[in-house]
Automatic annotation (TrEMBL):
Residue stretches making up the BACON domain: 432-520, 820-865
Signal sequence extent: 1-33
Keywords in alphabetical order: Glycoprotein, Repeat, Signal
A Pfam family this chain is assigned to: FG-GAP_2
Native organism: Rhodanobacter denitrificans
PANTHER family named among the record's database cross-references: GAMMA TUBULIN COMPLEX COMPONENT C-TERMINAL DOMAIN-CONTAINING PROTEIN, UNNAMED PRODUCT
InterPro entries with a match to the protein in the record: BACON (IPR024361), FG-GAP (IPR013517), Gal_Oxase/kelch_b-propeller (IPR011043), Ig-like_fold (IPR013783), Int_alpha_beta-p (IPR013519), Integrin_alpha_N (IPR028994)
Name assigned to this protein: BACON domain-containing protein
Entries under SMART domains matching the protein: Int_alpha
Amino acid sequence: MRSMQRSLRRAAGGMVLLAWASLALVPAAGVLAATTPSGASVPFAVTQIEDQKIVASDGTELQRFGESVALAGDTAMVGTNDTTTGRSAVYVFARSGGAWQQVQKLQAADGAAGDNARFGAAIALEGDTALIGSDAARVGANDGQGAVYVFRRSGGNWSQVAKLTAADGQAGDGFGNALALSGSSALVGASQAKVNGNPRGAVYLYTESGGNWTQTQKIRGVDTRDGDAFGWRVAFAENTIVVSALLAFQDFPGSLYFFKPVDGVWTQKQKLIGEFYSNLGQSLAARGHRLVAGAPTLGTEGVIYVYTQIDGSWRRTHTIASPESEKFANFGYSVGMTDSAIVAGATAATVNGESWAGAGYVFTESGSGWEYAQKLVASDAAANDSIGTTAAIDARTVLLASGVASPGGQFLQGAGYFFTNLVGTTQPAVAVAPSPLTATVKEGDSRVVALSVINTGSATLDYTIGESDCDRPAETAWLTLASSAGSLAPGHADAVDVTMDAGALTKGVHTAALCVSSTDPAQPSIAVPVALTVTPDVPAAAIGVSPGRLDFTVASGASASQTLAIDNGGTADLQYSVVEYSAERLPPSYAAARRAAAHAAAGGERPTLNRGTRIAPTGSAMPAVLGDWAISQMDDNSPGDTGLSCGVVGKNTADNSWWRRFYFGEHPQVGPRAGISSVTVSSGGMGPAGMPITINLYTIAHDVAVDTIPTGALTLIGSASGTIDSGLVTMTIPVTGTIDDTRGLDLVVEYHTPGIGDWLGLFFPGANATPETHPTFMSSVACEFDEPIDAANLGAPDFHLTMIVNLGDVPPPGCQMPAQVSWLNQTPASGTVVPGATAQVTVTANASGLTPGSYAANVCVSSNDPVNPLVPVPVSLTVEPGAVVDALFCSGFEAGETGQCAAARD
């Protein structure tokens, strides 16, 4: 049974924010097989599909994306084993606004195509340092000796700073097949390192000082034998180095070796051996005084073991069996661990009847042991994908991946899956937004900005805020906090008012930091950068044009005039003119959005990407087709969701664009040339009434990659604006555009909100989760993704934008000079409007020489308004037949001739 898990966050003023994740409740029967010391049972577990699926931006077949993974806070790394090019890479992903985006691709500086060095065979990530193993790298004349590359992050960019190799390395050692990182210490596994020419394995310890990494010890088990694969996995635990030897002894039980420092030398103190054929140590993860190790081939199902250090000795304290008792599922092939949760991958688990699809299982700590809490599966689970081959967990986020998955039919391309909001954790988790905290004020002014402190965990969070950098306390005179400490229940938030006062500051950018300290064990302190931009008090014009369109109906040969009001709501003189501006030259809204984003930033609060709630449809389906034909990408366009939006919850909407790309070849009713007459869209159940929106029509070459919308390939062919209310409302916006070649061109429609002003709420577009033939896209400069991104890659695979495109007669071109439209005239054509005043422009439509029918054009008013430099005003003209003139009557043969005859003769 599908259901939705909801987490509540309470902000200032009692606002409750809803964050949804797709979940399903699984009955208890036959689900739980985890054992605890008390034998306690668990009534049910939760099956969760991913929040976001990731692949490499340049993914290809045989890339094997997901061979290794690492996760730390808002940074993730995924390694490949690219057998197509022979040069592998590690892809860096960053989380922003709740969505993960690829931000960088890392490769060895000395790598080359065809080197088959397996760069990315293993990854260790901590803070701003990453170790990347290349266990097949050639070193000197030694093929496959292996190397490790050290990367550092500076200014958001990762760069290689060192390369590590074993001082005594030999060909085939596999140095770099396993990695661990703890502060300035690193462990490197070389599971095939030689002893007397035979592979046994070794581990190398490196320490960093002043940016230089030095090999300080080579570690071996005292009783290792040929073929043991000592160094298969490595981990730092509490005052302990742990090493697994996967193939130790006959019958492959696997072993764990424990080393402790003695007079500065790491010395073997303990060894634990697994059961026959269990492969103990296939996976390994440690957290403080606890350790989890996988034995995926024990029996027919596999297990994971939890070890605890008690009185200096490591003891097995819990045995966790496969929760679903599925035979040969490889449960425990991968593991990850936090203070209160464990994730275990089962690469051969069956999902929805798909064998070897793979899954992950989450266990959380309780008073009686470890309890089964969640099953993690891919929404597109397919046979032989083996999701969970690699796994990582950090706080409440899990990353499962597989290098043998074949997404979209791309053989062995590989894929990764993010899961968030894990259930059952028993610790607080802090989130702070926005970060950085920014504001723009005029000289002498001040601004109050809200800093939200959110408890996303499941235990009470205590926090304090100081006006200082976390490392260098120094109070900032121009910053004032309304409160500096608080306590939050799970799922709640405080909005702390921060006052930035420019009274004593000169113009320019002034920076500081706020340090948020909390009881979150994963993030005990967070530095929030603060930037106050002080600008001179420079006046600016602000244009307003009304009405928004002009409609004329005149008799043949007659004319009519209407007034266009141009008002200036700004503080500087407005210079305006009616200019020639072809449709192709209209500024695309994504460029205008940059200005809007800057304008929104002046409001002092940084917007974030937000997911709205699902709403029961009201039955208010899309209206009837307006035009000769209609095209859509969904059978049901009834709004029932509120979709995605960028803005400040409860306060305003930033710039947003929601996109669809239409392929005319899928709509045989459309001829070789098409005319767009209008677009029907809807609003969600949240947001302000009267939200201004713009519909932009573009063409894009049909040979541009399917299901992509690169804005550089777009040509604007039409634009129109309007307003829309909230509450699952539908609206048809008249907008015209022509596609001259429907075979060579596709149509792209942009549904845009400008994000200007405080709308007392966050606007969401109408959407639903019914099947769509092509994906919905979104972009938002304010939320830092300029280009349209598939909604599924923003963590919202069920956000399907409701939209109908209505086709009719081929319309006229877009904005033109009225002087170039034979039936239009205006006076004056330009002018100046002082602040607070209004200018009147008379627009005249003259039907002289026009046959009866309908005509259309656009009047475009340009100005020095920095936010709204061009305002198009659609104009329609309906020419009706004139009065019928009796030629015989007017000839003079009949008495009573009137002025009508004189007009006819003229």
